[in-house]
Amino acid sequence: MALPFRSWYFPEEASHVNSFLARPQVQKKEVEEQWFKTVIAPSAFFCTCVRARKRIRIHQSMSLTQEHLAKIDAYWRAANYLSVGQMYLRDNPLLRRPLERKDLKQVLLGHWGTAPGQNFIYVHLNEIIKRHQLEMIYLSGPGHAGQAMISCAYLEGTYSEVYPDCSQDEAGLKRLCSQFSFPGGVSSHVSPECPGSIHEGGELGYSLSHAFGAAFDNPQLIVACVIGDGEAETGPLATSWHGNKFLNPRTDGVVLPILHLNGYKIANPTLLARIKKDELKKLLEGYGWKPYFVEGHEPEAMHREMAETMEEIALEIKAIKERALRQEQPERPCWPMIVLRSPKGWTGPETVDGLPLEGTFRAHQVPIKVDKGNEDVALRQLETWMKSYRPEELFDEQGVLLPEVAALAPGGNFRMSASPHANGGLLLRELVVPDFRKYGIEVPAPGTVRAADTEVLGDFLRDIITLNQAARNFRIFGPDETLSNRLRSVFEVTNRQWMLPTEENDEFLNSEGRVVEMLSEHMCQGWLEGYLLTGRHGLFNSYEAFIHVVDSMFNQHAKWLKITAELPWRKPIASLNYLLVSHVWQQAHNGFTHQDPGFIDHVVNKKASVVRVYLPPDANCLLSVWDHCQRSKNYVNVVVASKYQALQWLPMEAAAEHCARGIGIWQWASCPMECEPDVVMACCGDAPTLETLAAVSILRHWLPELNIRVVNVVDLMKLQSASTHLHGLPDAAFDALFTVDKPIIFAFHGYPWLIHRLLYRRANHHNLHVHGYQEEGTITTYFDMKVLNELDRFHLVLAVLKRLPQLGEKGKVLAQAMRDKLEKHHRYIRERGVDMPEILEWTWD
């Protein structure tokens, strides 16, 4: 048989050597001699010659006999058979009797098109895992065809270990098939329920970024990432190809992208499958990859080509890793990747209802519809299709995969479906976290000293990096904003990881940094998710307005956590921690586009068991909150913090106590406890807290007889009822804070209606008046941003006066004074471009 040769590189030479190798009993020495005589003479073909000799050696060393290729094909047929069976069958899983309508599900759901290609890839990955004892996980990017990964996990035995009712026999096969896309069963895409998966197959575009995240700090791991050609059209995936500029071959693992070109999406052709081979090759090489092409549809030739390609790549990866270990400063290698071109719906029916199916968009979902009008014909066609995989050659009388076929899979944790890297909680080591209290700033009295909250947090994060340097299990991800967000201290002990050339004026770049930055929120989110899912810790710092870029990625991760919490075999992973800085009230200079606090609203939509939102009012509270978040598991924690110099309110111990409660009365700013308040002034967030306390100081000066209670909220979820959220306050505790009949003026960091939504069931909701962001913004001063949205101290005072008509003439005089202040502010900033001194220099008295 001819040694398959990549004819799109040097077609004439390839044709010559392939025809020569096709001769019977060609010996290695003869091959090499003939090759040198006919090809090496032109020096331009020297590299081609070296490549051919390498492939010859691989061909000889692998001993790919017909018998072994037949076993590979048998394993693939078994996976394909189970993939079809899961779409259709409720009974008769081994076709021991003629197929009847009662054997099928009433509603046929699923996706076939990409399944056979993914099964093909999986069996060949198993080949090199077993041959080289590799640690590898498999990420299924195409989205649907979840039955492919389930089939492979079942054939490896892992699925039965996790779900004993899907046993390795006929009863187990029946259960495996009947549960798929069925109420009470499993979904049609790759989901958390599938062993070996760390990538949800719902929304497309994130598989490759997840793969890089999994590879960071995992030097022994190869992450095989199958990328669907439809998925490759998404923006996040197109950006993800650049991940190879960050991967350190010495300290990180390997990402092996496998671009699966089957030509079609749901109804349209795919772009990368329709461009010329040479154009695609140049595109991938331009991204910095070395593409290996495997294409065709004839199984025997494809198995041989894929096996030899996989072996060549395995040896190349080994050489890259060994070379990096010898280098003092590892160079960025040109990592290999595979482009697999196979028909959509490969091995399925060629035609259905007189229309072509295999190799067309019609193979995307359920190929053969079984309706009342065509039941007999459809059943026979389905039966013929399933029997084409020859199940009687694959399973014994009890429905057990034959030993000689099962032996092709690796054993133990070398099985991709059993890898602990795909169940990251098994590998998770507790983060070493110093005592956050020692980083606290001195606050001799509330509102008398200033500090930049995230600068203080930066010192804490710096030492977390230092304490976990040896473990290499903590990273900071961000879109080029770590310095902007005032976390400069971390660069005292680390750098940004970077594998491209550096220039004289660059800062904080080297090949082993603990900070990873790329100007793509998608990449940062995907990297962090992959890092967490494989058992490590980290954080994502971003500007608040632009975290919306990853809204849908957050959705997918939150859904993943919700499901995995219900699976006892999935061990808890470190929480996904967002640090949102440069927030809406600190973006006056960048203007309206940078002003949006709505990510909080989006987060609160998710399950209460998953999401947490914190708005610390000062640096010491931020330290306490972050300590909790960094130690937590299986949550998404969103923390909104200030990065500019601002007044500080609580000393360290008081801050820790306040954050532990999550909400509380600030007695030092309130009327005596024994007094019933006339009004409750609540605040949540650093800017609302400042303006609330400034408003309180005005009211106390003008109306000293007024009893005011100040309630500060750090944990937003405290506002929900205890029956809705684990952190929620019981009604009695809530009423004790907010009263049942007094006006509540609530200054909130985000959109006002979120507070109404959280409190609508509370007894005193009718007295609630929320001030927050009203979608008003421009380039202006920081205080004017609050004025535009009526969150400033003057509007808050007016809100109190409006709800207390009993103040009479005194109230009217103060109201006019506040309107005068607003007018003065308006004139002042337009004349001088800065806020009034009484605003900039205000402190709590």
Automatic annotation (TrEMBL):
> This chain belongs to which protein, by name?
Probable phosphoketolase
Q: Which UniProt keywords apply?
A: Lyase, Thiamine pyrophosphate
Entry's EC annotation: 4.1.2.-
Start and end residues of each Xylulose 5-phosphate/Fructose 6-phosphate phosphoketolase C-terminal domain: 643-844
What lineage does UniProt assign to this protein's organism?
Answer: Bacteria, Pseudomonadati, Bacteroidota, Saprospiria, Saprospirales
Q: Which family does it belong to?
A: Belongs to the XFP family.
The residues covered by the Xylulose 5-phosphate/Fructose 6-phosphate phosphoketolase N-terminal domain are 64-426
| Superkingdom of origin organism | Bacteria
| Enzyme class, UniProt record, top EC level | lyase
* Molecular function per GO: aldehyde-lyase activity
Query: One Pfam match, by short name?
Result: XFP_C
**Required co-factors:** thiamine diphosphate
Which CDD domains does the record match to this protein?
A: TPP_PK
Coiled coil spans:
none
**GO BP of this protein:** carbohydrate metabolic process
